[in-house]
Write a structure and sequence with these properties.
Blueprint lengths: L24 H5 L21 E8 L3 E9 L2 E7 L10 E11 L7 E3 L7 E13 L2 E2 L2 E2 L2 H7 L1 E7 L4 E8 L7 E5 L11 H4 L10 H9 L1
Antiparallel strand pairs: 1-2, 1-6, 2-3, 3-4, 4-11, 5-6, 6-9, 7-8, 9-10, 10-11
Length: 214
């Protein structure tokens, strides 16, 4: 939906926590940091501009991890088919555990047998703008996500313009990631297949995996 048509459900903003209790407990509990090169979880001071990152992840099931910086952590969704720049295409997005901000810089190979084992590549990243408003005031991103509908503008190297995350149903199991209809929408683009390289190293998944083996 265009930002001007977005009307979030009523919510008492005071009930939305801005500091999560033990935010990295799930993240740290799933990983053996003696084996994985991933950064250890911990809350970091938020960056001057909130960021997003999309990491291509060749795990047991290939997917893209879409992450938004919210209150000092990266709120994360696994998107099996990756983002589409066609507003008519709705991509399934499955919530995963919060990740530390340091994860926005991570690419490499998680060893086989470890949680999420496989190659990780930073496919896109950059700042984003919170577009959520209600009653003439800005709605914090944490509140918008809690309400089940968040809208934002991405300023990435590959993805730009307005996007929305919409929860499906009454639980938190499944969401949709959708491109808004704006000047950056393009039904003809296939960015996940035509732009495979990392935005920080310029390498492909295969090159990252080969470097780790060598």
């Amino acid at each position: 939906l265009p930002p001007e048509r977005y009307q979030p459900p009523a919510v008492e903003l005071a009930t939305i926590p801005t500091m999560l209790e033990e935010p990295m407990r799930d993240y740290n509990g799933r990983r053996d940091f003696r084996k994985t090169p991933e950064p250890r979880g911990g809350r970091r001071r938020p960056r001057r501009e909130a960021i997003f990152v999309i990491q291509e992840h060749a795990a047991s099931t290939h997917h893209y991890d879409f992450r938004l910086e919210v209150d000092g952590v990266l709120k994360s969704w696994a998107v099996p088919k990756g983002p589409s720049t066609d507003p008519r295409v709705k991509r399934l997005a499955v919530p995963t555990e919060d990740h530390p901000l340091d994860y926005a810089d991570f690419e490499g190979v998680i060893p086989a047998g470890e949680y999420g084992g496989g190659t990780v590549l930073v496919w896109d990243r950059g700042p984003y703008d919170n577009l959520n408003e209600a009653g003439g005031r800005k709605v914090p991103m944490a509140a918008a996500i809690a309400n089940g509908h968040a809208v934002f503008r991405l300023h990435g190297q590959k993805l730009r313009g307005g996007w929305a995350l919409q929860r499906i149903g009454s639980d938190d199991a499944n969401w949709l990631l959708v491109k808004m209809r704006d000047d950056d929408a393009d039904a003809r683009r296939r960015p996940t297949s035509t732009e495979p390289c990392s935005v920080i190293s310029g390498r492909t998944l295969a090159e990252i995996g080969k470097a780790a083996d060598g």
